[in-house]
Amino acid sequence: MSRMKASAVREILKVAERPDVLSFAGGLPAPELFPVEAIAQAHAEVFAQEGRAALQYSTTEGYGPLREWIASHLGERGLHVAADQVLITNGSQQGIDLVAKVMLDPGDVVLVENPSYLAALQTFSGYEVSFSVVGSDDDGMRVDELERFVTAGRKPKLIYLVPNFQNPKGTTLSLERRHALVRFAQRHRILILEDNPYGELRFRGEHLPSLASLDTEGVVVNLGTFSKTLAPGLRIGWAVGPREIIRALTVVKQSTDLHTATVAQRATARLLSRFDYNAHLDQLRAVYGERCLAMIGSLERHMPAGTRWTQPDGGMFIWVELPRGMSADTLFPLALEKRVAFVPGSPFFASEPRTEFMRLNYSNRPPELLEEGMRRLGAVIASQQ
Amino acid sequence: MSRMKASAVREILKVAERPDVLSFAGGLPAPELFPVEAIAQAHAEVFAQEGRAALQYSTTEGYGPLREWIASHLGERGLHVAADQVLITNGSQQGIDLVAKVMLDPGDVVLVENPSYLAALQTFSGYEVSFSVVGSDDDGMRVDELERFVTAGRKPKLIYLVPNFQNPKGTTLSLERRHALVRFAQRHRILILEDNPYGELRFRGEHLPSLASLDTEGVVVNLGTFSKTLAPGLRIGWAVGPREIIRALTVVKQSTDLHTATVAQRATARLLSRFDYNAHLDQLRAVYGERCLAMIGSLERHMPAGTRWTQPDGGMFIWVELPRGMSADTLFPLALEKRVAFVPGSPFFASEPRTEFMRLNYSNRPPELLEEGMRRLGAVIASQQ
Prior knowledge:
Helix content of chain A: 40-55%
Shape of chain A: globular
CATH class of the largest domain in chain A: Alpha Beta
Oligomer: homodimer
Strand content of chain A: 5-15%
Strand order of the largest sheet of chain A: 2-10-9-8-7-3-4
Mean pLDDT of chain A: 95
CATH architecture of the largest domain in chain A: 3-Layer(aba) Sandwich
Largest interface: A-B, 58 and 58 residues
Number of domains of chain A: 2
Radius of gyration of chain A: 21 Å
Number of strands of chain A: 15
CATH superfamily of the largest domain in chain A: Type I PLP-dependent aspartate aminotransferase-like (Major domain)
Structural class of chain A: alpha/beta
Distance between the termini of chain A: 31 Å
Low-confidence stretches of chain A: none
Largest sheet of chain A: 7 strands, mixed
């Protein structure tokens, strides 16, 4: 079932990449904002000054100076950890997989938001778990409903969520719910996997503390990545958490792929040692904020009555609810005919798929193409009413 | 148990890296032979000419031109596959993990040589399999003994081996046994995982056909890597096999880490498009051959009577059997005192560990240090007789 979903979405993304299609399907950052020259320069220096070490095998834990930079950076964001609590991963997707591998046995229960990040659902499914699903609203996961999931024989082993600018909804877990969720996990000794790929991409509102920073009892593993802030093609992410869990993840990573690419780690560390990362983030936030508001403006202009959407404060996605009775699965091929694409929402549901949603990505297109895309999409939806 | 082994070996390698210790413990290629400038140049060109694409997300299958190069290169070695039968992995270790993830369920039986590549044993153990172990001699796995392993309820799901210059023994599976092994796997419909990291490093004797090239029924997955021929720090390996298996591995890789680093893949493809890879391999073979023979010469000069070792035709390792009654585990701390290190053989055994063996790596040291190291090691062994 999970594999079928995976294949279906792979097919969708493949079709959506047709050059004549204006696609909002992928989860792609804006390549024109990649700091290509700074990354190129960092690589050149690594090869010139430490080429042999950078091309040799290295430790599974990751490159020391990079782990230190990440620990220090997280500290600035209110999450105080030591460098030896940081494991470098091949993007944060690998963090999800390693946590699943260490923590989950067949038949275990994983509690997820519904809808939830598709590729995490696929990872968990691969370990033959079952899901408990909790709904969400504009303030993220319905933490107030969690208590009823702790029933005999169905107690979750893991709670997975994306608290900031969730994929696919774009919504953010409120501060009150963060406190409540951490208390809940502590009370029942359930591990929280806090997946935070988009947290740095807040373009309005106040930064909220991570779940890991609210936890004093070691029940949170926090995942981060440079994929949305520097470039995904480097494949550098990290997992941060209690030492004994990080140690277990490290042993499992060793037998999974030995270590993350040494060249990319050293180049990233070198880049960060002198690059103005915060100024770069400010630029990303400005551009993505502009694009998000542009997409919302275009949705307002072109969507027929009865269409609704979320109002993200950051990240890369808007979640659209179609007018009553309409199915995004049915709409997809019709939209393709009009050379516009999205991801239908159904595969993001861990339980019964719901067909009235679609996910739109705004980070990858300038405002004029967002406008043109929403014009096309609005016309397709209107034609089906 | 497997984790204990992993930790023990991690500790051994950590101690062995002490700068005052002459270590033959690691499985490290010679960094002075890394084509650093050519790799640096390829990266520089990638950033200059295709920087944004190289830093963006890419397909799980891997970069098309790199898959094509690998398919064509394998063809020159007698293994004829199409590019869509090649999956790019993060080193061949990831290939082992993906095959295990797709093929193995808890309780399944994996048939391995004894001793066998340690990190593969760890990977398989993580999937809660049990092992059947078959012995080996100077011609590799005792294929003539396989039939007795196909008993009711214990039929292996997978056969794992390193046919060329095995880790840890350095021995090579004979041509006759290759044919017999493939016939055996075909007869019983058992998948062979042919792990071939060292195959290009033959410095004497004739190239032998891969198991995959002898198979016409789709029972072999073949793993390769640039870690031993270009540089491990790039983390580029590949899995080659029947299309339906490669497709399943691809779906699983997607939920494991999305894809292998785009930058490293494109730089490697660019490098290979004009680099004289065969001339580079000739240089590696010449140097490693010289080092292997130098180590054997030093062993002959310095080891006490009763010590025996293998005679590799390629690869990176020699397997040493200590004089009767001696334990490599006991020897290890004594050797460290004399500032020389090796890996004790016991963790390489999937069944009862045997303590009278040690693995020595010769690729990472020039002849004069091999001589000094064997002099120190010989004295330690002699002192224990």
